[in-house]
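Propose amino acids for all 257 sites.
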């Protein structure tokens, strides 16, 4: 199974979501040995690669945004996410970050290593927290300022060096909306390949403060409760979508597009 990425797009058939076979790879000039196995076992049939951004799709195929494909991929979504992260890891670690020597693939594990200085580089994972704040029958949802089409969702942010996940939750909430929390509870996690995040989701109870948004991060934050209309929220294939839907107040109306 061949995952061919062009930026954040995946090559699939124009009609359906079938992946390209070896013949299509050959047409594109992709040699089998240039593709990265998704696991360190060389006999695996799952391989991925990033190609040039100006490469055109062959006849009968199209490059489609991976994020938009997730609902159609179903159970294959996690596999496609791994394929993207592995291909991105190889693309961004061609040379040693210490001495600039070309990296080589290890034979005993999924690892790139420098033959000159011995540096080892493993697939990158960036942990990020997500928290849905509850106040009685109300929940806090926010829109991120950096995305023109951002949906209303739970607060989120990356964990910084030296922090625990719990520390990151309290810091991010204080920075983004100026609130205090209590009763932090784990909800679930999801690998999120945009480009290499691990989303770790929580719920928490409101414990004080008034909403004061960090304008460079948050464009709007509101409490939504029984009977309110909630604007577009994340898709069900994301942990953000599942987190919000699992705690919707009674009688709310969703605006889904």
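Proposal:
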């Amino acid at each position: 199974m061949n995952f061919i990425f062009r930026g954040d797009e995946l090559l699939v058939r124009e009609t359906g979501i079938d992946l390209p076979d070896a013949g299509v790879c050959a047409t594109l000039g992709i040699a089998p040995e240039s593709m990265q196995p998704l696991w360190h076992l060389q006999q695996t049939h799952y391989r991925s690669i990033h190609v040039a951004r100006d490469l055109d799709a062959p006849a009968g195929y199209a490059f489609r945004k991976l994020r938009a494909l997730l609902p159609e991929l179903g159970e294959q979504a996690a596999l496609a996410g791994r394929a993207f992260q592995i291909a991105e890891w190889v693309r961004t670690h061609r040379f040693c970050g210490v001495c600039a020597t070309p990296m080589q693939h290890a034979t005993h594990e999924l690892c790139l290593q420098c033959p000159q200085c011995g540096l080892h580089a493993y697939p990158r994972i960036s942990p990020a927290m997500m928290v849905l704040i509850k106040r009685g029958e109300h929940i806090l949802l926010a829109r991120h300022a950096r995305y023109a089409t951002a949906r209303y969702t739970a607060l989120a942010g990356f964990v910084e060096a030296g922090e625990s996940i719990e520390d990151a939750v309290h810091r991010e909430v204080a920075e983004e909306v100026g609130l205090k929390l209590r009763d932090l509870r784990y909800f679930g996690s999801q690998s999120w390949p945009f480009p290499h995040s691990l989303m770790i989701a929580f719920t928490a109870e409101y414990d004080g403060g008034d909403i004061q948004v960090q304008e460079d991060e948050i464009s709007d934050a509101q409490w939504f409760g029984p009977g309110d209309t909630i604007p577009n929220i994340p898709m069900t294939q994301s942990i953000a979508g599942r987190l919000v839907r699992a705690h919707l107040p009674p009688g709310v109306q969703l605006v889904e597009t």
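The radius of gyration is 21 Å. The chain is about 20% helix and 30% strand.
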